[in-house]
């Protein structure tokens, strides 16, 4: 069935009619997220922290895949760039954690330009192959350099301190990731409703028409790609600080696929859907722990069922 | 100086010559047409003018500025907008968002000011919406602003493509078969609309059209193509009487 009414995205900052169907569950979810560590045990808080990490990563990849329509199969590479940049700077050079974030963002930008500038001129399929290769290259480089600690990785990454308070326990990192997730959602929402956000949708729906109407498609795609990269790198910094040890095995192709899965599962292009997909990706392996060795099978069947019955994701974009 | 000046334009795909040394010009404030049998090279010429094809030789200038070989988005920014033969709307987006797309090259604010919600960025966004609405009003579909573009009737989709192109504030607008698929009533509305574009906004119009009735009614000058060559160029009456044009359209007696 075709949906004939679509919402025009309200301009950023413009007063809009609240849609209670989204706002109320959103507020409830936020309230739950705020109090969760107060009554949950360490295991649940740990899983919830992982879920928040995936929320950030999926929101970042959603800019690339959901907004601009670019298939990126190596997104974990930017997550690795952030984690290693922050890890090396704090562990080897004694940098303050907070100062490593802008450095990591800059490093992700540079990596994004190196990969994006030549390939974004091509059609999306080529980008998928190149990003797939890029993801593996970054992981293999990390495995073979001395400064990245080789296959065993980096250890002894310092815990960040804020106003004299050191983030140590899992609850602390839970709240840090919650702040990062909310910040990322705010950023995505602001950009989605702006001139550049619309340009990404124009390019995604019809590249030639977008060029004909005055949009530089290469610049638009590159900006989406770089913005996704920057978000992953910030998530990487915080991830390194939480783990205090990182190894190349945290940034495999599998990781890229999981993030992509979260975006597609929830519903590309729309923030609530992507958040839901990210949480599912993090929770599914835990919920299915009881299935023992059948876990991969049950997971696969669950995913197939979702894609069969909700081909546009669990909470799809009305536009699609 | 003419608004659009095309000199010795050549285009070929591999060994196939599509355009042979085409020269013509369009004066500012005119309504001109390009006609010719199917496959004569009209749309290829449009694609050269708008940067989608790179010509093999020759030059194109708009208001005296050379635009030959520039990418499409630069050419649009310099004041040349187009519509497509087979309507190319952003079908899944709203009608208003389609119209707003034209303003992209006339606005500045990027990602950072959107994140910071700078007052200047918000003002710009409001201006973009207002301009989008204004052009929807101009073509008469503002009541559909929040509908899905792909859900509009065929005639309204054509109007929306016009509104989107006009929203880029062009000096010259190229219309590729705007009357294709329209009924008689809609064609009359289109003739009226094309005249209003020129008369009310001062935008120069160049159109490709097969509907001779429409072409003869709206054009002040007609350029006729056949097999990638210009065979005639002049006022409608003169072109209609030109034996080469009659030959191209009707063939000759052996």
From TrEMBL, chain A:
Give the superkingdom in one word.
Bacteria
Q: Which GO terms describe its molecular function?
A: branched-chain amino acid transmembrane transporter activity
Membrane-crossing ranges are 52-81, 93-117, 173-191, 224-245, 257-284, 296-315
Tell me where in or outside the cell this protein is found. Cell membrane
Q: Which InterPro entries match?
A: ABC_transp_permease, LivM-like
The membrane topology term of the UniProt record is: Multi-pass membrane protein
Task: Tell me where it mainly resides.
Answer: membrane
Its GO CC terms? plasma membrane
UniProt KW keywords: Cell membrane, Membrane, Plasmid, Transmembrane, Transmembrane helix
Q: What's a Pfam family this protein contains?
A: BPD_transp_2
Q: Mind telling me which PANTHER family this protein's record contains? A: HIGH-AFFINITY BRANCHED-CHAIN AMINO ACID TRANSPORT PROTEIN BRAE, HIGH-AFFINITY BRANCHED-CHAIN AMINO ACID TRANSPORT SYSTEM PERMEASE
* Name of the protein described by the UniProt record: Inner-membrane translocator
Upper classification of the organism = Bacteria, Pseudomonadati, Pseudomonadota, Alphaproteobacteria, Hyphomicrobiales
Automatic annotation (TrEMBL), chain B:
- Which GO MF terms are attached to this record? ATP binding; ATP hydrolysis activity; L-isoleucine transmembrane transporter activity; L-phenylalanine transmembrane transporter activity; L-valine transmembrane transporter activity
Q: So which domain of life are we looking at?
A: Bacteria
Question: What InterPro entries does its record include?
Answer: AAA+_ATPase (IPR003593), ABC_AA/LPS_Transport (IPR051120), ABC_transporter-like_ATP-bd (IPR003439), ABC_transporter-like_CS (IPR017871), BCA_ABC_TP_C (IPR032823), P-loop_NTPase (IPR027417)
Under the heading CDD domains, the entry gives: ABC_Mj1267_LivG_branched
Gene Ontology terms: biological process: D-alanine transmembrane transport; L-alanine transport; L-isoleucine import across plasma membrane; L-valine import across plasma membrane
Q: Which Pfam families match?
A: ABC_tran, BCA_ABC_TP_C
Keyword ATP-binding carried by entry: yes
Q: Which SUPFAM superfamilies match?
A: P-loop containing nucleoside triphosphate hydrolases
List UniProt keywords, sorted A-Z: ATP-binding, Nucleotide-binding, Plasmid, Transport
Sequence ranges assigned to domain ABC transporter in this UniProt record = 4-252
GO CC annotation terms, alphabetical = plasma membrane
Could you say which protein family the record assigns here? Answer: Belongs to the ABC transporter superfamily.
The name under which this protein is listed is: ABC transporter related protein
- In its UniProt entry, the species of origin is given as Mesorhizobium ciceri biovar biserrulae (strain HAMBI 2942 / LMG 23838 / WSM1271)
């Amino acid at each position: 069935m075709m949906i004939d009414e679509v919402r025009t995205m309200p301009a950023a900052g413009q007063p809009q009619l609240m849609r209670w169907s989204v706002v109320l569950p959103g507020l409830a979810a936020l309230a739950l997220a705020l109090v969760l560590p107060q009554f949950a045990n360490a295991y649940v808080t740990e899983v919830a922290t992982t879920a928040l990490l995936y929320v950030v990563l999926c929101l970042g990849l959603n800019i690339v895949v959901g907004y601009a329509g670019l298939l990126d199969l190596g997104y974990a590479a930017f997550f690795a760039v952030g984690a290693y940049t922050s890890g090396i700077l704090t562990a080897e050079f004694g940098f303050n954690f907070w100062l490593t974030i802008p450095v990591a963002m800059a490093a992700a930008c540079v990596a994004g330009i190196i990969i994006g500038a030549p390939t974004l001129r091509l059609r999306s399929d080529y980008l998928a192959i190149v990003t797939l290769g890029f993801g593996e290259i970054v992981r293999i480089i990390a495995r073979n350099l001395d400064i990245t600690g080789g296959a065993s990785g980096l250890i002894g990454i310092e815990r960040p301190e804020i106003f004299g308070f050191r983030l140590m326990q899992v609850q602390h990192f839970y709240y840090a990731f919650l702040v990062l997730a909310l910040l990322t959602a705010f950023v995505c929402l602001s950009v989605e409703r702006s001139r550049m956000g619309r340009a990404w949708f124009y390019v995604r729906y019809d590249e030639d028409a977008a060029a004909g109407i005055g949009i530089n498609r290469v610049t638009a795609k590159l900006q989406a790609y770089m913005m996704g990269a920057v978000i992953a790198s910030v998530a990487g910094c915080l991830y390194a600080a939480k783990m205090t040890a990182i190894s190349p095995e945290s940034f495999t192709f599998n990781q890229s696929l999981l993030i992509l899965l979260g975006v597609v599962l929830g519903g590309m292009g729309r923030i609530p859907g992507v958040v839901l997909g990210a949480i599912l990706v993090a929770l599914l392996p835990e919920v299915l722990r009881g299935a023992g060795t059948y876990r991969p099978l049950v997971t696969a069947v669950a995913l197939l069922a979702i894609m069969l019955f909700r081909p546009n994701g669990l909470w799809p974009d009305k536009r699609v | 100086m003419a608004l659009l000046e095309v000199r010795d334009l050549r285009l070929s795909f591999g060994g196939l010559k599509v355009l042979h040394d085409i020269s013509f010009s369009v004066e500012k404030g005119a309504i001109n047409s390009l006609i010719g049998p199917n496959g004569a090279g009209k749309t290829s010429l449009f694609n050269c003018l708008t940067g989608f094809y790179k010509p093999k030789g020759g030059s194109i200038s708009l208001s005296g500025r050379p635009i030959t070989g520039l990418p499409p988005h630069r050419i649009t920014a310099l004041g040349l907008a187009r519509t497509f033969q087979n309507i190319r709307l952003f079908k899944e987006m709203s009608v208003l968002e389609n119209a707003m797309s034209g303003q992209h090259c006339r606005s500045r604010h990027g990602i950072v000011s959107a994140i910071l919600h700078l007052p200047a960025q918000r003002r710009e966004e409001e201006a973009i919406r207002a301009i989008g609405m204004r052009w929807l009003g101009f073509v008469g579909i503002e009541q559909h602003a929040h509908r899905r573009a792909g859900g509009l009737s065929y005639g309204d989709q054509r109007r929306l493509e016009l509104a989107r192109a006009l929203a880029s504030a062009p000096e010259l607008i190229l219309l590729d078969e705007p009357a294709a698929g329209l009924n008689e009533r809609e064609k009359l509305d289109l003739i009226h609309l094309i005249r209003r574009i020129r008369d009310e906004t001062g935008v120069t119009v160049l159109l490709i059209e097969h509907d001779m009735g429409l072409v003869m009614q709206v054009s002040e000058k007609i350029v006729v193509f056949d097999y990638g060559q210009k065979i005639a160029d002049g006022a409608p009456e003169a072109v209609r009487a030109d034996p080469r044009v009659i030959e191209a359209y009707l063939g000759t007696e052996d």
